[in-house]
């Protein structure tokens, strides 16, 4: 016990001496480069950001991380309760939406979990409804143009020389999957499971049913945020 107390007193004394040696306790001990034999110099990062048009430092450990690296562009993200994925990126990009029930697998033989504990929790992706456009888009695909603490805004653009754009706000826990069309893009709603029913409920509201038996409501608003009129 006495040796432990002596070590603490010594550490405090050394720290006090180090602070006393400088008028600024925040002054760096050294600004010289570390020994390159111990710490080899490297530049950049092995996984560079891509499709990102945000000047601020790139967020990490976010649900949209797949979409800001090249090899993740074709992968799904999980803002919940939906799963989102890009389709036909090189031709006519569309945002595919999946809303599947979770699959839970319990532990047991060959796993690290006992039978009464959950071993894996997964959500299979199934493109149930997609938001895209009738017209061709820029073949470079999408771009992340805004990034915040809880989500991003992603754009699909028309070919060079056009002002067409689709803006997708993607946020954690979003109640709706939405898109804002501008510059002449015409909304196009599709499903990989085939649309089996399509009905207009009222001005600005349509009902879609896909081959999997899921029904979706599609709301179309004008630039002022009001439902479109009977002309649609």
Main features:
mainly beta; 1 helix; 4-stranded antiparallel β-sheet; globular; 232 residues; single chain; disordered N terminus
Summarize the structure.
The protein is built from one helix and 13 strands; from the N terminus they run H-E-E-E-E-E-E-E-E-E-E-E-E-E. It is mostly beta strands.
| Gap between N and C termini | 83 Å
Strand order of the largest sheet: 1-2-5-10
Question: What is the number of E strands?
Answer: 13
List segments where confidence is low: pLDDT < 50 over at least 5 consecutive residues: 1-20
Question: What is the mean predicted local confidence, pLDDT?
Answer: 87
Evaluate the radius of gyration.
Answer: 27 Å
Q: Which structural class best describes the helix and strand composition?
A: mainly beta
Annotation field: number of helices: 1
Estimate the global geometry from the Cα principal axes.
globular
* Strand content range: 25-35%
Helix percent band: under 10%
The sequence of SSEs as H and E is: HEEEEEEEEEEEEE
Give the biggest beta sheet.
Answer: 4 strands, antiparallel
